[in-house]
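Subject: design request, 107 residues
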C-alpha cells in the first residue's frame, strides 16, 4: 500500500523520475500487469524510472536497460531489446552462481 501511495504522490506532482524498490511485490498478476502498463506509459512520456526487482521477466517486459547487481556491484548492463527472456535468465543465473553453496541447500 505504501508503494501505491508513493506512486500516486509522484504522479500528482508530475515527477520526472521514479525510484522504485520491488514495486510488484505483493501484487496479484492482474494488478502487476496494470502497474507495468502504467510504468511503460510513463517511460514513453519521458519519465525516468529506476526499478530494483527480482522479477526478471517483468523487467525484460518493461525496461529499456537491465542491470544485474550482486553484493552492491553492477555486474552487467544490458539492452532489454537485445536479449530474450531465456538469455536474461541464463545471464542472471551465471552471475549469481559463484561456486559456493548455502548451508542446508543441496548444490
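Subject: RE: design request

Done. Sequence follows.
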Amino acid at each position: 500500500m505504501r508503494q501505491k501511495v508513493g506512486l500516486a504522490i509522484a504522479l500528482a506532482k508530475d515527477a520526472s523520475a521514479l525510484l522504485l524498490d520491488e514495486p510488484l511485490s505483493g501484487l496479484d498478476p492482474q494488478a502487476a500487469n496494470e502497474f507495468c502498463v502504467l510504468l511503460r506509459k510513463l517511460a514513453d512520456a519521458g519519465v525516468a524510472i529506476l526499478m530494483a526487482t527480482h522479477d526478471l521477466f517483468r523487467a525484460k517486459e518493461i525496461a529499456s536497460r537491465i542491470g544485474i547487481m550482486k553484493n552492491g556491484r553492477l555486474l552487467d548492463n544490458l539492452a532489454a531489446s537485445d536479449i530474450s527472456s531465456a538469455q536474461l535468465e541464463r545471464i542472471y543465473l551465471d552471475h549469481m552462481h559463484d561456486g559456493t553453496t548455502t548451508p542446508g541447500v543441496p548444490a
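The longest strand covers residues 73-79.
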